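ok, trying the design again with the full structure, not the truncated one.
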């Protein structure tokens, strides 16, 4: 089938979140504030890790990459959402829709692998502290980061390869505020049952499988922490609780989208906002306000910048 020759749809129309003006105003202010805060917060984390040599350890390098991913997921969806809130005709081009799906799945796949890498880093640090520097070497850290992005690209390309040439002849309305793969496929004017099942099964299996791996790893870590002294265990549990919150915030909506057998459009939209706007804002909040070393490093970087300004004047 030559899908491109049979497609007559050149753009898609979003139904958006609501047509009630008061709620639109609230969403505009709420989403705009979250987007700006997440951009500032995640950028600060990245700059702090880059410029403070005290944070040049695997844990913080992985954290900086998580912040970069959060910047990406916010930028792919939030600007379009904010721009469209008050518009009656919310449209996106066919190419724009494909591009949005492409980057969402790259970033989502990369974040899953990165969260597993961060859990492995904490496992080694707590369960095998004497071997930490040997196991979590700079080379291993780079391998984790490269693997995360490569697997994200493979995950995205592998799914889009089956859908990019589907024929679309109408309708072209997506009951959402961004392009997602399951709803995109349903608009094709051909039988897509097997394709929908494949996409849902792959994404659902990857998300649920990754979540189970992370849960098992954190259970093992917590059991190991309980054998340590009270002082070290309390510090380790504080760090672990931050990681677990990030995992739940990320995987909760993703599992609901792809693995929950009883989908709900209204709940889907709520969780989608949570996933693309609130979670990227919460991640830097969780890591900075619960991490004393990060807060001290930010003060050092700020002092260095102030001193640099004074010298330059």
């Amino acid at each position: 089938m030559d899908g491109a020759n049979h497609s007559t749809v050149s753009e898609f129309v979003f139904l958006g979140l609501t047509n009630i003006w008061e709620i639109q105003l609230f969403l505009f202010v709420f989403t705009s504030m979250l987007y700006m805060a997440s951009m500032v917060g995640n950028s600060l984390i990245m700059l702090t890790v880059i410029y403070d040599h005290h944070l040049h350890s695997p844990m913080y390098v992985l954290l900086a990459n998580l912040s970069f991913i959060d910047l990406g997921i916010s930028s792919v969806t939030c600007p379009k959402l904010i721009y469209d809130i008050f518009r009656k005709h919310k449209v996106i081009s066919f190419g724009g829709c494909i591009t949005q799906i492409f980057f969402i799945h790259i970033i989502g796949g990369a974040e899953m692998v990165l969260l597993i890498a961060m859990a492995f880093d904490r496992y080694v640090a707590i369960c095998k502290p004497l071997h930490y520097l040997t196991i979590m070497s700079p080379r291993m850290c780079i391998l984790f980061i490269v693997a995360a992005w490569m697997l994200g690209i493979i995950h995205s390309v592998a799914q889009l390869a089956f859908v990019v040439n589907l024929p679309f002849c109408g309708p072209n309305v997506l009951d959402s505020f961004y392009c997602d793969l399951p709803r995109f496929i349903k608009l094709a004017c051909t039988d897509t049952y097997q394709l929908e099942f494949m996409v849902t099964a792959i994404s659902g299996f990857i998300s649920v499988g990754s979540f189970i791996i992370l849960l098992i790893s954190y259970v093992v870590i917590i059991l190991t922490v309980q054998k340590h002294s009270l002082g070290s265990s309390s510090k380790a549990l504080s760090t672990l609780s931050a990681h677990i919150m990030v995992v739940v915030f990320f995987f909760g909506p993703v599992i609901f989208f792809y693995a929950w057998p009883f989908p709900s459009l209204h709940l889907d939209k709520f969780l989608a906002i949570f996933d693309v706007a609130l979670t990227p804002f919460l991640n830097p909040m969780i890591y900075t306000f619960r991490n004393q070393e990060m807060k001290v490093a930010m003060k050092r970087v700020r002092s260095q910048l102030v001193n640099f300004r004074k010298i330059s004047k």
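Keeping the full-length input from now on. The beta strands are 11-14, 90-93, 173-174.
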